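Board notes, transcribed. Complex of a protein with aspartic acid.
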Amino acid sequence: MHRTHTCGELRLSDLGKTVTLSGWVQKSRDLGGMTFIDVRDRYGVTQLAFNVDDDQTLRAKALDLGREYVIKVTGTVIERSSKNNKIATGEIEIKVSELDILNASALPPFTIEDETDGGDDIRMKFRYLDLRRNPVRENLILRHKMSQEIRRYLDGENFLEVETPVLIKSTPEGARDFVVPSRMNPGEFYALPQSPQTFKQLLMVSGFDRYFQIVKCFRDEDLRADRQPEFTQIDCEMAFVEQEDILNMFEGLTKHLFKTVKGVDLGEVPRMTYDDAMRLYGSDKPDTRFGMQFVELNDVAKGHDFPVFEQAELVIGINAKNCASYTRKQLDALTDFVKRPQIGATGIVYARHNEDGSIKSSVDKFYDATTLDAWSKAFHSEPGDLLLIMAGPTDKVRKQLNELRLEVAGQLGLRDKNTFSPLWVIDFPLLEWDEESARYHAMHHPFTSPKPEDIHLLESNPGDVRANAYDLVINGVEVGGGSIRIHDRDLQSNMFKHLGFSPEEAQKQFGFLMEAFTYGAPPHGGLAFGLDRLVSIFAGLDSIRDVIAFPKNNSGRDVMIDAPSSIAPAQLKELTLEVKA
Ligand code: ASP
């Protein structure tokens, strides 16, 4: 028998028991008379004790053990003389009578401790060792718990988990597809799904009514901290529903997860229209853990001959509470921040609301005390506050101010990882103008339904048509999104036309879906959550990498197995692909 207990299990109540444990050597300390070895498994760490009076071969074996050796020990549970209240087994130790080395270990390339000396690259190359570390393992345990609770909730609501294919034809969701050559169909390719979108809609046509799947999706995009080429969605669809039904159902799921996994009562999730989100936060995924809403200033800023404001479409600012004491250096740093090419602003105008009530701005030449008072009123500022103002074309300056708002809030410690502020953003525009291709693109995807009351604008003002589309945002992260779908063949075909598809192209790519709509498609809608992002928020992490067992690096590589890799010429030939010279 390899073990009677795990390494996280024994307590004072087990004193005197003869037990067998198996695990990895975490560390060993030789204190002359005594040798202590910590043995670790998934469940915890238990201290093993050997002393000088022990059988000499046993003692010698213990002294020989290296880090990460796999051992099996048998011994008696005794009370520790110096207790460790930091670990669950800290009141006991095992007086070992038998020690077997099940496998030796090479010296690990980094220390397997909570705080490791291993950098990112080495940890990824030896990910199986990294996964032995508590913080990484705990993230995966959290992920497991969340998946279980998701299934429990959705099963309780009558959702059926259905698997959809991984080798499919591309669905346009805005990203590039990963493609797979077909040996049996020379010159033809499958695409890996960016999401199971069309399949879940077809399941609604089939009458499945409530579908979900915890499913891998693939997008060949440039990577960032919150993106991986393959990621996991909680993909859901419902028939005979309106937007309200979906928001309620998945607000329920979100609350259930927070309650069962984190013990947090989320309360009712507020809603905000896309237009308001852009106006008040300059973002369709506002971080609402703190206020600092935008204040529009055209009324009080224009008409005073300050050229920057005169020429701007929009003058807009935020009130950084209690920041009037910011030094020149801090303000310069904020200006440099917004001038970085990624943000591209020209600068910041600021005004300090001094303790004596006076207001002093960086553009005093143009604004007298009365006008500055009007600024203060617009911002509801109080003595001690700092007003940060930017100007430019409306959409651009809003996005720039959003970056500044997040930066300032970060500096002020307002983005606390243990505070959770969810928000539904609703009423997204249906279409989005794309400069590069000089045409409209679907903002969500081409299957999203326009709001019935806006359909008449499709011809005249396509950019003004709102969609029955919604996102769930938590702490400024988009964790989910979806829409009510089109279920009418003619409307879907009209939509493809507006998106620049010729009737032939639409037929070729989506003929199957439009045909399905002619066989009694019910009204339906759904959404998908990003599981990786949701878990990383629960774990308080900025990156999704550490909630994924075997993630890819920023170049989309798995450095452990060394993928992607070239394939043999014979394999290429079989796939009728060019052999590289
Ligand atoms: N398929 C969509 C996505 O991946 C989600 C949805 O509309 O249900 O974003």
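The chain has three domains: 12-103, 137-272+423-547, 290-415. The CA atoms of residues 142 and 169 lie 34 Å apart.
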